[in-house]
Amino acid sequence: MKIAVVILNWNGEVLLERYLPSVINYSADTDIYVADNASTDDSVTFVKANYPSVKIIQNTENGGFAKGYNDAMVNVDADIYCLLNSDVEVTPNWLTPIKDAFTNIPDAAIIQPKILDLLKKDHFEYAGAAGGFIDQLGYPFCRGRVFQTLERDNGQYNDTREIFWATGACMFIRKEVFHELKGFDADYFAHQEEVDLCWRAKNHGYKILYVGSSSVYHLGGSTLSNMNPKKTYLNFRNTLFSITKNLPRRKAFIIIFLRLLLDGIAAIRFLFQLRFKHFFAIFRAHLSFYRQFRKMYRKREKTQFLRNYYATKSIVWSYFVHRISNFNILVKD
Length: 333
Description:
Strand content: 15-25%
Shape: globular
Keywords: Glycosyltransferase, Membrane, Transferase, Transmembrane, Transmembrane helix
Helix content: 25-40%
CATH class of the largest domain: Alpha Beta
Family: Belongs to the glycosyltransferase 2 family.
CATH superfamily of the largest domain: Spore Coat Polysaccharide Biosynthesis Protein SpsA, Chain A
Pfam families: Glycos_transf_2 (PF00535)
Structural class: alpha/beta
Order of helices and strands: EHEHEHEEHEEEEEEEEHHEHHHHH
InterPro entries: Glyco_trans_2-like, Nucleotide-diphossugar_trans
Number of domains: 2
GO molecular function, one term: glycosyltransferase activity
Radius of gyration: 19 Å
Number of helices: 11
CATH topology of the largest domain: Spore Coat Polysaccharide Biosynthesis Protein SpsA, Chain A
Number of strands: 14
């Protein structure tokens, strides 16, 4: 089984200098690529000068996370692609449990390791934690992370189990599955594109796993922080895209209506907090969704849509009303 680690980069020379060495040191017999999204800094020059064993893919434009990886992957020869953020520090033997899982569980198509916080290493990190799930209305959350609440890693998620979505911060995917699904939806640009990819994989009958015996540390926020209104815009818009594309038609229209109402409440909350840029980000997200609705609707695949896709009915109600922020209390297996 051949794994290729592919790091998407855009003006990330500082991040590559800091975190690429761990990938090289702990990924023996693995091809490592840096896929550059038309950077204007010295990223590519730095890698060529200091790490000649690392292969360079130079994309012609900055198409964001989604198009950037789609463009790069046609140049990668491997059985398993590892999509790795440039701000991730990997650990010794991080690849061994992943290889074992793909070998022993043949129907596993996508796998993610445990994602811990690089700045607070005994806590889970926002982008992925111990595996992703969604609620009935399409809100994503993780084992170990519900909204902004991050759990301490006490070994409670050291298992291997099926999840709904794997984080793009560190995602392993079989080559044939990535290309069968035609990669990420480039219209997302960034954020939530991995949820859409995994949702489509689920609709195709594939299994997505979390493997807790492999762990990496993620800095997070190196592209857009959680407080950036552009991230608010992309998250709200792209979630509506995913619901449109991946739910049975009647269900999709009901959920979209409810989400638009709840998004309006979130916008009003931002308004009362005087966070005007986030208020307008939601407004712009809805306008973009309306403009592109027909296009997204045409992307619906002729497949068996999942009906039991959610782990809980309303993460918003549980978190903000009942004050539940622990995954094991929220979701009873």
